[in-house]
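Human: Here is a favour to ask of a fellow structure person. Comparing notes only helps if you start from a blank page. Give me a protein, with the fold worked out from its sequence. Please set it down just below, with no commentary around it:

Assistant:
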Amino acid sequence: MPVVVQAESEGDERGALLAYLEAQRGGLRRALHGLTEEQARSAPAASELSLLGLLKHLTTGERGWLRLFQGAEIPTDQAERRKEWETGFVPAADETVEVLLALSEQVAAETEAAVRAIGSLDDTFAVPPAPWTEGGDYSWRWGLLHLIEEYARHAGHADVIRETIDGKGAFDLVFETGAMPEPDWS
């Protein structure tokens, strides 16, 4: 947890899923708060991951999943898909913190609008075969849970990277950005 997700309105499963997705996006965005471009691109931990690279990966990944949910054609060239995945963690020179944060907000709004517009979370979309799955039909509910899982996994990576950069933990950033008021521990 670093932020409290409010309980959904009765029967608003979409709202609950979208709120948890946004909470995880927020964790990643807050990890970039107050950093220089150089710090955001640095990979100070044991892996090659940078905070900006994680933001790029998750934002482009969410956009790709949303297109898949909506039935868009996915390129079938496996070599091209692999190259896209491999470079998905490496921001280009023009993919700055400001640019990728703006893209993240845009993709989030597109996802929310699409989720609010579907008939049911039971509606399905086709996932093509990939090296890690046989593919098949999946529900929008499954898709949203998958996005939450991806963001949560990488938000944890972001916490470690940020603490390695300057010692600030997730709660420090939650309070510093005003995402949640600091509790009165007295």
Summary: The longest helix spans residues 140-166. The chain has a mean pLDDT of 92. Residues 66 and 110 are 8 Å apart (CA to CA). The longest strand covers residues 124-127.
